[in-house]
TrEMBL record:
The keyword Transmembrane helix applies. It is found in: Cell envelope. The lineage of its organism: Bacteria, Bacillati, Actinomycetota, Actinomycetes, Micrococcales. The keyword Signal applies. This is CopC domain-containing protein. It comes from Luteimicrobium xylanilyticum.
Length: 199
């Protein structure tokens, strides 16, 4: 009798655990956008003019204000000078910014977007620039030409980075399901115990 009841309790606990696990695994299914390709390619050497820098993601980039203001796309040299010439634009899975590069050397692209799931995602990649001799080189700018948008996107990133990757709603849902299942298990075990007492 006792062994059978224990077995039932274990089965019920396994069921609860399994269901809770399923919910937990299902929650992060809304993964963050990740980079699929870049222009220039990451780690490549550009030996011709680079009129724009582009980053393509696996999923759409959110642009809630429809003006690219929550997107950052900056191109800097080793000295930290900026060579993007305006604010970035967002088009589906692509973000791009016009550029006028300076001297030959290493350039770093810094990007920050709002992922399809509403979370900010950011990253950097580098490429080398080796233009043909005689190519005019831009002087670059000490400050980002799209300064305002940097601040806005930064604020969005800060506010979201404080929260966990699982939203509070999901957590409350999981806790609710587990509590409900635990209650069901208790009721079933109590009933079974009473039945075995009656018998
Ligand atoms: Cu996310």
């Amino acid at each position: 009798m006792r062994g059978r009841r224990l077995g039932g309790a274990l089965a019920a606990l396994t069921l609860v655990g399994g269901l809770a696990g399923t919910v937990l695994v299902a929650a992060p299914a809304s993964a963050h956008d990740y980079v699929v390709s870049t222009t220039p390619k990451t780690g490549s050497t550009a030996d011709a003019a680079v009129p724009k820098v582009e980053v393509t993601f696996d999923d759409v980039v959110l642009d809630p204000q429809h003006d690219g203001s929550t997107t950052v796309l900056q191109v800097t040299d080793a000295a930290g000078k900026h060579f993007e010439t305006s604010c970035p634009t967002v088009s589906g899975r692509d973000i791009s910014v016009p550029t006028a590069l300076g001297a030959a050397g290493a350039y770093t692209v810094t990007w920050r977007i709002v992922s399809a799931d509403g979370h900010p995602v950011s990253g950097t990649f580098g490429f080398a620039y080796r233009p043909p001799s005689g190519t005019t080189s831009a002087a670059g700018q000490a400050a980002a030409p799209c300064g305002g948008s940097t601040a806005k996107a930064g604020a969005a990133a800060d506010s979201a980075s404080g929260s966990s990757s699982v939203s509070p709603g999901v957590v409350i849902g999981i806790v609710g399901v587990v509590v409900l299942l635990a209650a069901v298990v208790v009721v079933l075990l109590t009933r079974r115990a009473r039945r075995s007492l009656d018998a």
